[in-house]
Amino acid sequence: MYPAAFEYHAPGSVKEALDLLGKYKDDAKLLAGGHSLLPAMKLRLARPAHVVDMRKIPGLAGIKEDGGTLVIGAMTTHWQIESSPVVKAKCAVLAQAAAMIGDPMVRNVGTIGGSLAHADPAADYPAVVIACGAEIVTEGAKGKRTIKIDDFFKGLMTTAVGPDEIVTEVRVPALAAGAGAAYLKFPHPASRFAVVGVAAVLTMDGGKVGKASIGITGAGTRAVRAKGVEAGLAGKALDAATIQAAADKAADGVDVQADLQGSVEYKQHLLRVFARRAIEAASKR
Ligand SMILES: Cc1cc2nc3c(=O)[nH]c(=O)nc-3n(C[C@H](O)[C@H](O)[C@H](O)COP(=O)(O)OP(=O)(O)OC[C@H]3O[C@@H](n4cnc5c(N)ncnc54)[C@H](O)[C@@H]3O)c2cc1C
Questions:
Q1: How far is the CA of 74 from the centre of ligand 1 (A)?
Q2: pTM higher than 0.90
């Protein structure tokens, strides 16, 4: 189906884009890679009268390291993240997750800022950025804000980003020396979206887990931190019984939704299985 008619804007700066958002308010939608927005417009689930394309704004794409933090421009594509030497060196789990998104066409066009702002409950990055403790930088009429990832995902396709704000950067701390990390998902066979996905970052301290950071996507309405699993690992040696007991808490606090992919019980089971596998994989890296 064709989208409803809209006016197309191609601003040359973040300020021009913000001015357009301020002028057209709820009638405007930002366009990044278009791989979530355009399908929604074609299905008439979204009918913006004004589309504000960010692809001509310089400086919104690219990856650099700033004092131990990866600074990733919002318009950086999944492919750029997947293939980035600095991401592979400093936070390989993010590159690995990017490589698991959709297919090559999706990865060549879709962006990290678009994915996080869209907050699809089955998207891959959210679990990883939660586990890595990322921050999201936005710009709006009132200036810049830095949002901690634990305050970012608010509900079904809802984030802390205001309607008059643009995500400009994703700041991901480099993994600590000696940390192990893994992201595993049970992919939908057609789209590759995560039916469930679990990211684990483990920092070891003298043979025990110093810090465990676990992000979960896919099963509920929004990505969450698996606090029960984290508490079950912290301060403990990683034997099979400890890992299993911690992974058994993976569905706690997740508002697991039944849908065409499975029942609540099935997804809770998948969460526990993928939490165990992600912890095991992270412990070996
Ligand atoms: C066939 C297919 C398979 C896919 N499989 C997967 C998968 O396996 N895993 C996965 O995670 N994703 C998957 N996706 C989604 C894909 O990753 C999208 O690229 C992503 O969700 C949206 O990014 P985008 O750059 O295309 O954003 P767009 O579609 O351009 O925008 C999405 C939404 O975010 C808003 N937005 C975009 N950028 C910003 C910004 N900088 N600031 C504020 N708001 C912004 C837009 O206004 C819009 O509402 C798939 C998509 C397709 C079509």
A1: 11
A2: yes
